[in-house]
User: Fold this.
Amino acid sequence: MKMIRHPLALLLAFGLVLPVLPLPAEDHGHTELGEQMEVIGKTFRSLRRAVRDPAKNAEAAEMAGEMLAAARASIDHDPAWTADQPAAEQADFVAGYKKEMQKFIDLLTELKAALEADDNEKANELVDALRDQQRSSHKAYKKPDED
Assistant:
């Protein structure tokens, strides 16, 4: 009978302890930079629609502010693709990324000011410039998808 109690006690103890043990964190390839870029991408899709409607200028200016905060946080990180660059070129790669991010930040700053001034013509031009700048920068600094 003792042999039955002992294994049951052991199973009971494991049953109580296992749910409390921390599980290893799963890494889904998420980085701080990736999270900031995700905020920028999702917000930009909404912003492009909102800028077309002058009645949504305040909302669009708020979205531009969210993107601006994420872009400012992003400039302090190195792109994930940096490690795949030749060692001798990595510093230049990161410097180029930071330069492009600063251009993006400058355009967002102008866009936010244009929306706050209700200058929708200028805002639409800046959205186009942001889209073009984003596309060209992604070609140069975003690691291609492995599809």
Remarks:
- The chain has one domain: 30-141.
- The radius of gyration is 24 Å.
- Residues 17-28 have pLDDT under 50 and may be disordered.
- DSSP finds five helices and no strands in the chain.
